[in-house]
Sequence to fold (238 residues):
Amino acid sequence: MDELIYKRILLKLSGEAMAAPGGVGINPANATDIAYRVREVHDLGVDVAIVIGAGNLWRGKVGTDAGMDQATADYMGMLATVMNALALMDALEKIGVMTRVQSAIAMQAVAEPYIRRRAIRHLEKGRVVIFGGGTGNPFFSTDTAAALRAMEIEADVVIKATKVDGVYDSDPKKNPDAIRFSQLTYIETLNRQLEVMDSTAVSLCMEHKLPILVLNLWDPTALRRALFGESVGTLVTA
Fold:
């Protein structure tokens, strides 16, 4: 029998993964699709934690470009991630997956406060944990939040879910000759300025030797195959 090589994962989702047609808002059908993919690996016995962005609801850059204070714009984005987290929680629980949302910004009426030891306990009890509210601080992206939470819960890998099958040297939609990398080092990723995760997140993973795996979540078999060690997507390691 195949053996899992990753037993605790941090899944990083973009807000666009939840988006309605046109790229904005929340489409419950998309949340349901993600929930089924998460349930499949959760049923294998994998501990699953999730960090989700908010690009479908709010982009801080839109605010700052219009003259908004960046801290205010970032806090708005952090609040929007909790909306996405609640939508995904609802989709998971509708298909029988016990889920907890923890927020780095206190909002007790809808989410638990982020407490590291409590999050680990939820995972040990077989619950999916969704981390909302980013890091709780402005000027940090949800990529950085994903790297930080992954280290705090002692995840084996950060899995960056995208709509392409890995990292390319150029945009494969514009360049049919774009080359896909099966493996990269952290330094190569930073030097080439490849859009894996932002540089702060990559540097954090590099410092703590936490691998990053970029794959296409919408390939129905990719996540499962990756957990069993097949060469899927792009792996960023030391």
